[in-house]
Amino acid sequence: MLGWPFLVAPGRRRDHTTIVAPRVLVEHLDYGVLEAQASPGPPGTVEASSARGRRLFIAYWTEPVEDVRDEHGRPLRIIYGFVCFDGTPAAVDDADRRAALGAVRSAYRAFLADEDRHTVVPSAPFTLRSPASAMAVAQPDRSPRSLAAWLIGASALVILAVVAGVALLVVRPSPAVDVGPPPRSPSPVCAAPSPEDSPEASPTASPSRVRFRRSPGSSGSPAPPAPSRSPCPG
Amino acid sequence: MLLVIVGAVRTWRRRQPAPPTKNLDEAGVPTFNVVALGPRGAGKTLLLASMYHQMQTSSGRSYFVTAPFEQVVLLNQWFTEVADTSRDWPSGTAIGETRDFTFTLRTRAASGALHTVMRLGYLEYAGGLLTDAQTPGSTAQGDLLKRIESAHALLGLIDGFRIRQALDGHAEGLMRLQQSLTAMISLMVLASCPVSFVITKWDLLRDLDVEDDARLQRVRKFLMSNQGFRDLVEAHGSHRVVRLIPVSAVGPDFAEVDEQGLVAKLPDGELRPSNVDVPLAAVVPDVFEQVERSMDRALLRAALEQASRQSRRGPAAALTELGGYLATAAGKLLAPLGPHASFLGDAAAELFGAPGEAAEERRRRIERQLGEAERQLDEFQLARRKVLRDLQSRVDVLEGRLPSSRLTGED
How far is CA A199 from CA A61, A102, A103, A129, A173, in A? Predict the structure, then answer.
């Protein structure tokens, strides 16, 4: 399984912004999900969908930034971690956290040096040490047979819905109609990593001069993912 | 097959439990949504925490606010972090921390029973959403704009630290102040609800003048020199409520600008928040003042008189009818509150007044108009009316003490 480092952080003047994001999300201008899902606080994991429908798993941590304050005198903290597109780890290995942190340090240092000219740095994947879960993120089966089965099933559902609607009208021709939630979009397609990814922000990047102080609860590994956001004890 | 389905649906319907009966007291409680606009660092979170801290007990008022327990924990945590002079200020709010806070205004009636009067929704979000370009694939900015559009009141937070910097000739501070005003005004120009500009960190401006209103006057003059700000006040000041409320979430003896130009806590700083409850207290009186201004006076008087004449049908029914009329006649601002006609009727009876009419005169006139109806109101309604009166009174006190807090475009 591959992990793609990311970093969301504020600067001295700029508010929280995405500084490093998986290359595939940067290329498709689809990385807003990281800011929305990775929130400061205890380490956490979350499964989410991007605006373009990519299913992804995010493991994130928060670290205070040493000796740097924003222009209002407030301490800064960074939210970093990794994204998986090809599965869900059963547990998160701390080595993966360290690798993700190492991969984003230089990008954060560059951001702090020149906040106005910042552009999102695309990250390259690294191989996770975290074990894959048996319940991996499902890849939609797009074989012709399954497509045909899906079409038949969907058609049957539509017919059933029409018949049920007629039946409801016959039973009680009331003007009141319950409006249910909007239909969900079809199963998204998971993106596969590109082998030619350039390592602009990779775990092997040179060590950063930006120092990070470990927060008391930051060293732990996030628990296995829950269907929704699940802050995990350190 | 059709018959089978019809039969199944009939059976299913019969087995469905009856819809739950709503608690009538809770069902009649409207929610007024407030959105505080303000750039990063303007003090939105501190104001929220301090506001709650100030309003969670009655302190001489007829009401107090409560919030869901997990929100109370968070608000207290923020407030404690601020109050502790040995700790840093809390970090800025991240986009992933956007949250809705719901404050419930409660009152204790003469019998000792607790009643819920209304709710105030307050959105907490990262200030950069207002000033920075939207991140690709993010919906946060769009969501915020929708919330602004449907708000019952907008608070425009002006950072007192930036005003301090601008008055001291700090170019960066002036630029940031102008940037934030431009961002807020472009949204406020489109809004149809009341607007209050809230000057945060008022304590950092204490040396401008010893006298509070003179200080506010100076800041007001400075803000009116901004073309956008002046245009907004001139355009809306005549038919809408536009306020300028100075607040300090920490008070005058807690922090100061240090030699590096950063706001630092004083080691022996004492927390004494000032005016932090006013922005929320003003929401309902301002909504009703705007409604009153927008409506035909003759029609409004007729509606009030009709409510008075109908007292034989019961005062509650008369006021509910008045509220229903207002929800229809006042358009967008009150239309979503139509189901809470009883509240609207009470609020109209309590808050509407002739221009220039003093609070006491207004009360006497309304009571005369409603006559017997007023005396027959049940305990809940009387308690609610008292809360509305208190909210109006808080606004009246502010205007009495700081006449410059009402922006009219006449500067």
Answer: 22, 13, 9, 19, 63
